[in-house]
Design a protein that fits this description.
alpha+beta; 2 helices
Length: about 60
């Protein structure tokens, strides 16, 4: 995969420049904003949880 600059977001998979790191994984500012605004009853909430689980799986591998 060709790196277009920035870091690859663990949620959306896109390369972005702005965002945060949790442990060693990057979350772009767009996904971060969507995650904090998503209600726990929303179906997308579970998608975010599953994506975030990758952080802990990779760290403990």
């Amino acid at each position: 995969m060709h790196n277009q600059g920035g870091h690859r977001c663990i949620i959306c998979g896109q390369h972005k420049h702005e965002g945060i790191f949790i442990v060693s994984e990057f979350i772009c500012d767009t996904c971060e904003a969507e995650m904090v605004q998503t209600d726990a009853t929303d179906a997308k909430y579970h998608f975010f949880i599953d994506q975030l689980k990758q952080i802990w799986v990779q760290k403990n591998a």
